[in-house]
Amino acid sequence: MSALLEISGLCVSHARGTQRFLALEQVGFALEAGEVLAVVGESGSGKSTLLASIPRLFADPESRIEAGSIRLAGRELAGLPEDQLRALRGSSIGLVFQDAQAALNPVLRVGMQVTEGLSAHAADALALLARVGLPEPARAAAAYPHQLSGGMRQRALLALALARRPKLLLADEPTSALDPVLGREILALLCGAAEREGMGLVLVTHEIGLALRHAQRVAVMYAGRIVEIASAAELARQPRHPYSAALLAADPARTRRGERFAAIPGSAPAAGEHRSGCAFAPRCARARERCTRERPLLESGCACFFPLEVRP
Amino acid sequence: MGAYLRRRLAWLLPSFLGITLIVFLAVRLAPGDPALREGFDPSSGAPSAADLERFRSEHLLDRPLLVQYLHFLGPFDLSPRGQRWFGGSGEHPWSGLLALDLGTEFRRPHVHIAQELGRRLAVTAPLALCAGLFAFAIAIPLGAWSAVRRGHKRERGVALLLFTLHSIPGFWLALLLVLGFGASGLSWLPVLGLHSAGASELSGWEWTLDLVRHSILPVLALALGSLAYLARQVRGSMLEALAQEYVITARSKGLPERVVILRHALRNALLPTITLAVMILPALVGGSVIVETIFGIPGMGRYAYEALLERDYAVIQAVTALSAFVTLLALLFADVCYAWADPRIRHG
Ligand SMILES: Nc1ncnc2c1ncn2[C@@H]1O[C@H](COP(=O)(O)OP(=O)(O)O)[C@@H](O)[C@H]1O
Ligand code: SF4
Ligand SMILES: [Mg+2]
C-alpha cells in the first residue's frame, strides 16, 4: 500500500517584485496514515510554503509549484485542476494556522464558520466544538471570534479543520501564539485526533523540542531544503546533520543545568540568495572545501558530506 | 457601544459650532461688500449713502464680528429691531440658528430663507440621492471586481478610467457631458433645466419620462467623481481583505471562490465603505453647485451660487450651516451603522 502523502522533488517559487525565487528546492518525504511528521527549521526556511503547496493555498496568488510531485493517497495533486483540488480541500486535507485570530473571519459567528460548507446532517456546530474540548460549545458557536479567548479560538479553528474528518491534517505552528501550557493542550488534542482517526499529521514548528515530543518522525529544513529526516528517537539520540545538531544544542529546554546555551552563529541565507554548494556552509563548523563547491543531496535521510558520526 | 455613542454625540455640538464659525469668517473675509450689490433694492435705482447705511445697520454689518456671529448663532436677535435686552426695539426678539430661524435674504428681504431652501432642496435632494445611489451601485461591484482581477489587462484599463474620472474637475466633467451628449454633440439628451418648455401640458408618464431624460446628465455629472473615488476605495479595502488569512481558511474548507469572495472578503471590505457613504455627501453638495449652475437647475446648489455672486451672507451661511448639519448627522449615523455592522465594536 502506498503512503498517505508522498512528496518528491518539490520546487516552489515565490514572486518578489518582477523576480521569482525558489523557496522550496527538491523537497521530498512520505507520510503514513496515523503518523505525525514534524517539520522544523528557523523562520524563513520554507515550512509554511511547504504546507501551503499541498492544498495549493498560497498567500500570494503569484506563488507556484515549479516542479515535483505531491501524491495524496496515490492521487497526484500538483497540476490537478483547481476545481478538483477544491473538492479535496476540507474533505481530504485540513489546515490549521498559527494565529486563530487572523485565521477566523472577524465578522462571522464561530459556529457558522465551523460548519460552513458542510452537508446539513454533518453541520452540527455544537458536536464539532465539543469534540475539540470547548467547555461551552453553545456559547462558543454563537460568539464572534474576538469574544473567545486565544485557546478557545485555536480549538475552534481546529474544529473547523477537523469538521469533515480529513485524512491529512496540516498544522502550521498551531501553538506558537499560545502560552506553553495551552500550547501543550492543543498539541495533545491535535495528535490525539490524528491517532484516533488514523489521520496523517504534518506539524510545522520552529521548536525542535516540541517536535521531538509529539512527532514520530522529524524533517529538518534549512533554506528551502530538507537537510535531515529521521525518527524522533534517532534524531534526539544522534543528529547527523550539523544543522540538526546545532538546532538541538540551541534548544533551551534540552540544555542541561550549567551547560551553555549554544545559539547558532551567523544567520540563515536571505530568500533567493544565490548559493552554490551547501547552504549551511557559512555557518557550519565542519565545512570543508567541497562543501562550497558541491551541493549535498538528501541521501538516506541526511544532506551532508561530512555528517556527524552515528554513535555505536 | 453606549459610551462610544455618548462620546460621538458630545462631539456633535462643538463640531457644528466650529464649522459655522469657519463659514461665518470665510464669508466675511472674502472681498466684496453685500451692500453694494446691484440686486439690493432695485426699485430705488442706485443706492444712496443713507440706503447703504440703513442696509448695513439692519444686517449688523457695522457691528463687531463677534456680535455678528452671536446674532447669526442666536437665539437672540441683536439687530436694531431685535431683542430688547440688547437694545433692540423688541419687534423680533429671537433669531439665528439656535432659534431655528434662518432669517430672510439680504437681496430679497421678503423671502424667508428656510422656505426658499425647502423649495430648492426638493430639487437637489432627489438628484443627489440618485447620484449617490448610482455611485454606490456601480462602485461596489466595480471595486470588488477590480481587486479580484488586479493587474489583468481589462482591470488596468478600468483603473486608468477611474483615476481620470477621479482627478478631472467636476465642472470640466459636466461641460464634457453637455458638449458630448447635448445639442452640440450627439444631441441625445437635454442639457437645460429639469423640464422641457411645455412640460406642464404633458400627461403623467410623459412628464416623468421628460424629467428622467433631463436628469440623466446632471446625475451622471454629480455621480461620476464620487463613483470613481468610491470604486478606488472599495478596490483598496477589498485587496486588503483578500490578503487576510481568513480568506485562506475559507478556501481551505473547499468553498467555491464566489463564496470566498462575497461572504468572506467583500463583507469585511464593505465595513469601511459605510463611512465613505457619508464622505461623498460634501462632494455631492459641492458638486450640485457646479452641476446645477451648468445645467440651469433651480436647486440648492444654484441658490448658493447666486448668493455667492450677490454676497448674500445670510443665504450663504444658511446653506453651509445646513450642509454642515446634515453631514455631521450623517457621519454620526454612519458611525452607528459601522459599529452595528462590525461585531468587534458591537460586542466590544
Ligand atoms: N508570499 C510570498 N511572497 C514572497 N516571498 C515569500 C512569500 N511567502 C514566503 N516568502 C519567502 O519564502 C521563504 C520561506 O518562507 P516560509 O515558507 O514562510 O518560511 P517559514 O514558514 O519556515 O518561516 C522566506 O524567505 C519568505 O520570506
Ligand atoms: S555539507 Fe559541509 S557545510 Fe554542509 S552541513 Fe555538511 S559539513 Fe556542513
Ligand atoms: Mg511560517
CATH-derived architecture of the domain at 113-310 in chain B? Orthogonal Bundle
> What top-tier CATH class of the domain at 113-310 in chain B fits best?
Mainly Alpha
Q: What do we call the CATH homologous superfamily of the domain at 113-310 in chain B?
A: MetI-like
Structural class call of chain B reads mainly alpha
Assembly category: heterodimer
Can you tell me the CATH topology of the domain at 113-310 in chain B? MetI-like fold
Largest sheet of chain B: none
Here the CATH topology of the domain at 5-92 and 166-255 and 263-268 and 275-293 in chain A equals Rossmann fold
Task: Give the low-pLDDT segments of chain A.
Answer: none
Instruction: Please tell me the overall pLDDT of chain B.
Output: 88
CATH architecture of the domain at 5-92 and 166-255 and 263-268 and 275-293 in chain A: 3-Layer(aba) Sandwich
Please report the number of helical segments of chain A. 12
Instruction: Output the radius of gyration of chain A.
Output: 20 Å
Q: Would you kindly provide a written description of the structure presented here, covering whatever features stand out?
A:
The complex is a heterodimer of chains A (312) and B (348). Chain A is α/β, with parallel strands linked by helices. Chain A has a domain at 5-92 and 166-255 and 263-268 and 275-293: P-loop containing nucleotide triphosphate hydrolases (Rossmann fold, 3-Layer(aba) Sandwich), CATH 3.40.50. Chain A is built from twelve helices and ten strands. Chain A has helices spanning 47-53, 82-88, 100-103, 110-115, 125-131, 137-142, 150-162, 180-197, 208-214, 232-237, 242-249, 289-293; strands at 5-16, 19-31, 36-40, 64-72, 75-76, 93-96, 168-172, 200-205, 217-222, 225-231. Chain A has a six-stranded mixed beta sheet, with helices on both faces. In chain A, strands 2-1-4-5 form a four-stranded antiparallel beta sheet, with helices on one face. In chain A, strand 1 and strand 2 (19-31) form a beta hairpin. The radius of gyration of chain A is 20 Å and the shape is globular. The two termini of chain A are 33 Å apart. Chain B has helices at residues 2-29, 49-58, 65-73, 113-148, 153-167, 170-181, 204-242, 245-252, 257-295, 300-310, 313-341, 343-346. Chain B has twelve helices and no strands. In chain B, helix 8 crosses helix 9 and helix 10 packs antiparallel against helix 11. The model of chain B has no long low-confidence stretch (mean pLDDT 88). Chain B has a domain at 113-310: MetI-like (MetI-like fold). Chain B is mostly helical and 348 residues long. At the A-B interface, helix 2, strand 6 and helix 7 of A face helix 8 and helix 9 of B. Bound molecules: adenosine-5'-diphosphate (ADP), iron/sulfur cluster and magnesium ion. Residues 47-48, 172 of chain A line the site of magnesium ion (MG).
